[in-house]
Structures are given as C-alpha cells and as structure tokens.
Amino acid sequence: MKRLVILGGGESGIGTAILGKQKGYEVFVSDKGNIAEKYKKVLIQKRIDFEENQHTENKIFNADVVMKSPGIPDKVKLIQELISKGIKVISEIEFASEYTEAIIIGITGSNGKTTTTMLTHHILKKAGLNIGVGGNIGDSFAQQVAEKSYDGYVLELSSFQLDGIENFRPHIAIITNITPDHLDRYEYDFEKYIASKFRITKNQTKEDFLIYDADDEVINNWIKKNPIKAKLVPFSIEKKLEYGAFLKGDKIITRLNTEEYIMSISKLTLQGKHNTKNAMASTLASQLLKVRNQTIAESLSDFEGAEHRLEKVLKVNGVEYINDSKATNVNATFYALECMDNPTIWIVGGVDKGNDYSDLMPLVREKVKAIVCLGLDNQKIIETFQNVVDIIVETAGAEEAVKVAHKIAQKGDAVLLSPACASFDLFENYEDRGRKFKEAVRNI
C-alpha cells in the first residue's frame, strides 16, 4: 500500500486526505500547528492517522508521496530533506487532477484571479454546466474530486499551488496579470515568480488554450522568449486585436474563429478597467466552451462580486465605506484607488512583502485626503507619503482605524480599506481583517 503524507491540516490537506484514503493510500496528516476542530472531526470520522503541533520525521520520511500545503515554503529544511531523499513533493492540485477526467479551467495572476474565477463559474453554471469551483477559494478541489461528480472545474491557482505540479494540465488556462508579489517566497527574484505563474501552461498541448492580458508587458515578454504549445487567446483594453477580446469605445468585442460578439461595458455589474479585463477573460473562456452569448451577457450583468474585493459596506452620514481587504499587494490597491471618485480616506498597512509604494503616488496625490495606517510597522508608508498627504494616523486594529477614519471623513468622502499588505500581523487572514472592518463600520 502506498503511503501518502500530508503536511498541513487545512482545507487542501484534509481534502487530499479524504481523496487519498478513497484511492487506497495509507494516509498520514502532520501539522506543525493546531488542526482546526472541524478538520479534526473529519479525520477521526474517516479514521485517518494525524498529528498536530509537531512533525515526526520517521513518520514522514517513509512516504511514497508528500502533499504539502501551499503555505509551506519550499526552502523549509523538512521539504529540502524530502526532495534530497528523492521523495516526490506535490500540491493538492497535482494530486487531485490525476483522479478526474473533468475539463479544467485554471486561473492564475497576481490580481483579479478570484473575481475571474467566480465570474467564470457564475457564467458556466448559468449556462447549465455541471461545474465545480475550487483551488485557492471555496471547498478543496481534492475533496470535490472524491465526493462530487462534476464535468468541469474552475480553479483559482496561486503560484505556490503551481510550484507543486508535474502533470497538471488545464484545458483552458488564464493569466490575468503578473506584478511583483510574494517575492519573499521567490528569493526576491521577480523572474522566478513569473516562471512560477507560467507553470500553468507547461503541460498544455495545441488542443488547449492560454487566455492572457496582452497589455501586460511581463506576460508578453515571457511569451516571446518561451515556446508555448497552447493556442494563445489575448485580451486587451489598449489595442485592437484580430483574435481574442478588445475594447472599442465602450464596447467589448470578442473574436474567436469567424464570429464577432459585442457587449457594452455599461452592462457590467463590476466597474473599473481591471474588471473589464476580468470580464473579457471570463467571456473568452465561456465562449471556448460554447456557452451562448445571451447567457454570458446576462451573467455579466447580474454577477455579485467577491467578498472583500471593493465591497461596498455601508453609507454612514453620507460617507461610503468600502472593504477591499483582499488587496494584499500594491497593484491591487492601485486598482482600488483608480476606481475612487470621491475624496478618500485610505486605510493601509500590514505585513509588507517588499512593497514599492511609489507606483501609487499619482493616485494618492489626486484622490487621498488622509491615510490611516493599520499595521505594526508603518514606517515605509509614512516615509513615502508624508509630503503628499497632510493627515497620517497610526492605529492598531480595525475598530480604531474605522473610528479615526469616521472622525476625519466629511459628507461625500469615501473610506477605503485597501491595505496593499498581508494581514498576519494583526489578523488571521485578509477575510478576518475584512470582517472586522465591516463589523466596526456597522458599529459606528
């Protein structure tokens, strides 16, 4: 019996354990920290061996294959030792994809991937397809492969998940954009991070498709230098394309094969340039799967959007509060500030991943009237913007940040939580940060 060892007892770990057990593996789950109660119950119920708050090496090094949680960096000593012993270390995505014949749409990128994933899933579901959604969001992909019988999956894929693939092959791959992010995991080498994103297409064949942002210089340069077997399907809001999707005035035009399809961007529920791009990517993927244009148009105009992504929370005394906690890098915050039409009180800060805030300077000058810092170390933010913004206040929690913003704000202003940083200094994750912000707003 083959032994599957799983490092990390979170969503992807437990899902992989369920699938591994179903496929006849001897399964062992090991987590260096606590395993959440809801996951422990599943392991006990399924009679899966596990440990928490430690890694017992002699129970790990006898593995035939190891699935590691995307949160564990490759450079950790344990992982390096496994690799040097010739033990295969893979991601949940790799493990689960071996056991499904379903069509896979894989979506990666520094920003926009959650919205594009949810939007694509929304369109395909509305078209009557039997389709699951997973990867970096929602329920574990492996668990769905074990327990559901979907004909297709829309998977949001982080670079960490793609680092652990060998044979994984999506029929349709989407790269929304590539900007410097998570560089702390890639030895501060942007090229390594780019290569990681492009792993999404490494096993694709000429029968498959790669949908990508043709306005993104980083993506274009990589495609010029590296052979890609999949059929290239570009989208752009800057130039006219013979094939793919582009913008003409305020209309999205898609051209695949001989058909041309036109839709007005005023119909999109999600506004802003980046959302036009997300809509283009989702539309192209849906058209490649032969979804009717009518269904696509309806879906784009009734899509709700992702939680914690430019989510309008409340209007209090004429001040709009917006939760963009999912903006964990500078580029995401750039999009958010670009969408702001009112004078903005910007709540920013957290764990800095080597951020360069200078890209935001023109937008901050134009739109931001005050900055409220939300992090343990705000030095860089203060140094960057102290000569541009008159009011900069440091706070140590969502409640305090909202109170301060509420004091500064006047009727007609907006308060925007768009941290441009990870959340782990004061919060469990960006969802926790977003929820606490919303709670604080409701308690004003």
Structural class assignment: alpha/beta
Measure the end-to-end span: 59 Å
Strand elements, count = 20
Shape: globular
CATH homologous superfamily designation of the largest domain? Mur-like, catalytic domain
Task: Give me the side-by-side strand order of the main sheet.
Answer: 7-8-6-9-10-11-12-13-14
CATH architecture label name of the largest domain? 3-Layer(aba) Sandwich
Quaternary state of the chains: single chain
- Poorly predicted ranges (pLDDT <50, ≥5 residues)? none
CATH topology of the largest domain, what is it called?
UDP-N-acetylmuramoyl-L-alanine:D-glutamate ligase
- Number of spatially distinct domains: 3
Assess the beta-strand content as a share of residues: 15-25%
Enzyme class: ligase
Pathway: Cell wall biogenesis; peptidoglycan biosynthesis
Function: Cell wall formation. Catalyzes the addition of glutamate to the nucleotide precursor UDP-N-acetylmuramoyl-L-alanine (UMA).
Keywords: ATP-binding, Cell cycle, Cell division, Cell shape, Cell wall biogenesis/degradation, Cytoplasm, Ligase, Nucleotide-binding, Peptidoglycan synthesis
What does the model show?
Pathway: Cell wall biogenesis; peptidoglycan biosynthesis. It catalyses: UDP-N-acetyl-alpha-D-muramoyl-L-alanine + D-glutamate + ATP = UDP-N-acetyl-alpha-D-muramoyl-L-alanyl-D-glutamate + ADP + phosphate + H(+). Residues 308-421 form the Mur ligase C-terminal domain. With 444 residues, the chain is α/β, with parallel strands linked by helices. It has helices spanning 11-22, 37-45, 57-60, 77-84, 92-97, 113-126, 141-147, 159-163, 190-198, 217-225, 273-288, 293-302, 330-339, 361-367, 379-385, 398-408, 430-442; strands spanning 3-7, 26-31, 49-52, 65-68, 88-90, 103-108, 131-135, 152-156, 172-175, 209-213, 231-236, 244-248, 251-256, 259-264, 311-316, 319-323, 344-348, 368-374, 391-395, 414-417. The mean pLDDT is 93. The strands form three sheets. A nine-stranded mixed beta sheet has the order 7-8-6-9-10-11-12-13-14, covered by helices on one side. Helix content is 35%, strand content 23%. It has three domains: 3-90, 3-Layer(aba) Sandwich (Rossmann fold); 94-302, Mur-like, catalytic domain (UDP-N-acetylmuramoyl-L-alanine:D-glutamate ligase); 311-442, Mur ligase, C-terminal domain (Protein-Tyrosine Phosphatase, Chain A), CATH 3.90.190.20. 48% of the residues are buried.
